[in-house]
Specification:
The chain has two domains: about 5-10 and about 250-340, Aspartate Aminotransferase, domain 1 (Alpha-Beta Complex); about 15-250, 3-Layer(aba) Sandwich (Aspartate Aminotransferase, domain 2). Helices cover about 40% and strands about 20% of the residues. It contains 14 helices and 13 strands. The strands form three sheets. A seven-stranded mixed sheet has the order 2-8-7-6-5-3-4, with helices on both faces. A four-stranded antiparallel sheet has the order 9-10-13-12, with helices on one face. The structure holds pyridoxal-5'-phosphate (PLP). The site of pyridoxal-5'-phosphate (PLP) has 13 residues, from helix 3.
């Protein structure tokens, strides 16, 4: 049966008619020459929103994260992050490959780090040890079922990094989901992070793109690294226009994705094939299958009913709500769950 409801990821969305119109009418130039006014507009818009000095439009979240890590480390340094972090697990070994740095993995609760977890893992200066130079946080935490940091949790981590001379980078692939859930002020992020990567192609529904934010000096370095990575794009304004449209039209509606995720959580909890559901905070629902249930078989049964989900481990299944999931689809999915 053809898939009708795609919960695999919030990256599967298609541009809306309004977004396509914005893309087609964008004013463009050669962005490698820094002559694309739509790209500049997007970079400035996001830098202002997060109170950072400058921005750099990149083709993907992976590239913007890896550029930031390269900016903030030297070969033989060490990056501190959670063991579930996207930068470590799902970016193709990029930290080792691009930055020649080692990684210290921590065990946060649902991927959320604290100063108490980080401080003992910072190496003292000693020729035997890699130099701890960077902490990476992820907000929201993808593998943590969309768990989010509040600014009050981030502030003490920033203070620790400041005291110890470490840089702090945010993988903000889903930062707007976190902002909508916490009600935090995006402008305050600028005072805590040295780098922020914001994705436009996840919950915001743009087809392509991430923007790396930082100081003017950092972004100058990042621009050079982006070139070396092959990420300098020419008339990229067509893509940036989709990002601007998404920022103007698709941020507030993330609250709807959160409500949909909560409805899925409530519907899944009592079902016999579900052992437990990680409490929903944003747009990601992860549940553990009950004993005796074979994950692959359950995924197949769901697919036969036109519902696509993905496994995040041998016993866990993930559903992500997004722009292309309507209230009717949520009702339909819930009805189908009951008949599995
Ligand atoms: C938390 C997180 N960071 C970074 C990325 C990388 O984004 P991209 O797929 O654009 O490289 C993803 C992708 O899903 C993600 O979930």
């Amino acid at each position: 049966m053809a898939i009708k409801i795609d919960f695999r990821s919030d990256t599967v969305t298609r541009p809306t008619a309004g977004m396509l119109e914005a893309m087609m009418t964008a004013k463009v130039g050669d962005d490698v020459f820094e002559e694309d006014e739509t790209v500049c507009q997007l970079e400035t818009k996001l830098a202002t929103k997060f109170h950072m000095e400058a921005g750099l439009f990149c083709p993907s979240g992976t590239m913007s994260n890896q550029i930031a890590i390269k900016c903030f480390t030297q070969p033989m340094d060490e990056v501190i992050c959670d063991q579930t972090a996207h930068v470590y697990r799902y970016e193709g070994g990029g930290i080792a490959y691009h930055s020649m740095a080692s990684v210290r993995l921590l065990n946060g609760e649902r991927g959320i780090l604290t100063p108490e977890l980080i401080e003992p893992e910072i190496n003292e200066s000693n020729i035997h040890y890699p130099q701890s130079s960077l902490v990476v946080l992820e907000n929201t935490v993808n593998k943590g079922g969309g768990a989010c940091y509040t600014l009050s949790q981030i502030e003490p981590i920033h203070t620790l990094c400041n005291i110890k001379g470490l840089r702090l980078h945010l993988d903000g692939a889903r930062i707007f989901n976190a902002l909508v859930a916490t009600g935090d002020d995006s402008r305050k992020y600028g005072q805590y992070f040295d780098g922020i990567s914001v994705c436009l192609s996840k919950g915001l529904g743009a087809p392509v793109g991430s923007v790396l934010l930082g100081s003017k000096e950092m972004i100058l370095k990042a621009r050079k690294i982006r070139k070396a990575f092959g990420g300098g794009m020419r008339q990229a304004g067509f893509l940036a226009a989709a990002g601007i449209y998404a920022l103007d039209h698709h941020v507030e509606r993330l609250a709807e994705d959160q409500l949909h995720a909560k409805a899925l959580e409530a519907a899944l909890l009592p079902l016999s094939f579900v052992a437990n559901v990680i409490p929903v905070e944003t747009n990601i629902v992860i549940f553990e299958v009950a004993a005796g249930i074979i994950t692959e078989k359950l995924l197949h049964q769901l697919a036969e009913k036109g519902i696509a989900c993905s496994a995040t481990g041998p016993k866990t299944i993930r559903l992500v709500t997004h722009l292309d999931i309507s209230p009717a689809m949520i009702d339909m999915a819930i009805e189908n769950f009951k008949h599995l």
